[in-house]
Amino acid sequence: MSYKKLALDLDGTLTDSNKRVTPFTKKMLFAAMEKGVNIVLASGRPDVGIRALASELELDKRGGYILAFNGGRVVDCKTNQVVFETFFEKRYCDAVLSVKEKFNGVEVITYSEKEILTENATQYVMEEQRCLNCPVTEVDNLSEHLPPSIIKFLVVGEHERLLPVEEYFKQNFAGKFDVYFSQPFFLEVVPLGVDKASALEKLNLLTGNTKEQLMACGDGKNDMPMLRVAGLSVAMENAHPDVKAMADFVTADNDHDGVGLAVEKFIIKGESLC
Fold it and tell me: Where does residue 167 rank: exposed (0-12), middle (13-18), buried (19+ CB within 10 A)?
């Protein structure tokens, strides 16, 4: 199969434990682009937290896409134009913000175009800052400092403290907005129907690509919808067991060139699963 699109989760997949792309993986990605493969950087991060990586991979020159906020916004790297985006309904903002008072030990984050906004920069907020490499601004009352348009909230804290938050949202707001874990300590809160899979399907329609022409790599449970709509789904060795169980192929972990090895095997060498 000749793949035309390569969708890559970032944290735990494309980037290693130091949030860098290994030299071998970078070499394989450039080789894939020389073969005409379009790269899509697919992440729960806001686009401000992806742009440096897109620039490092020269997607602004070679072409490619940023799929940010788990699919809430897609940006064409070459033109810097937003291809499409979906906003969170303002009538549900107070419900999301209220969990900080309802549940102990959790914090709520949202994003402006250039910074992370929160009331308390906990260790989990700073982990998000480390991933994005953008400023954190603490405000007295987040509800009074919300940006005009919101694509995503992130509720952060210890996994055991986030589980009842997830259950609260699912019991009281099913069909209103979606929630899912991207990391054990990160609970994503996004507009209804927003995920990496639906965004990739829209992008395929716009660019004339088929499911069979898409290869996708991921490690987290929030990557599973994306892997299901790919012609070839690749899980990292460090992936969640559910992800590894449903993937077509399991590659090495993110600290040992997992993405690069998969790209070499299936795109550069053109090997098949059989």
Answer: exposed
Helix segments in the chain, DSSP class H: 23-34, 51-56, 59-62, 93-97, 99-102, 123-132, 159-173, 196-207, 224-228, 241-246, 258-263
Cα separation values, 110 from 47, 152, 224, Å? 13, 6, 24
Q: Terminus-to-terminus CA distance in the chain, angstroms?
A: 12
**Span 95-126, pLDDT tens digits:** 999 999 999 999 999 999 889 999 999 999 99
**pLDDT tens across 125-137, in order?**
999 998 888 899 9
pLDDT at 158: 97
3-state secondary structure of 244: helix
d(CA 131, CA 73): 18
Query: What is the reported pTM?
Result: 0.88
Q: What residue spans define the domains of the chain?
A: 5-86+194-268, 90-191
Residue 137 CA to residue 188 CA, distance in Å, equals 19
Fold of the 5-86+194-268 domain = Rossmann fold (3.40.50)
| Euclidean distance between CA atoms 178 and 89, whole angstroms | 12
Q: Which one is the CATH code of 90-191: 3.60.150.10, 1.25.10.10, 3.30.1300.10, 3.30.1240.10?
A: 3.30.1240.10
Contact 215, 232 (CB under 8 A): yes
Residue 199 to residue 195: CA distance in whole angstroms: 6
- Which DSSP category does 223 fall into? G
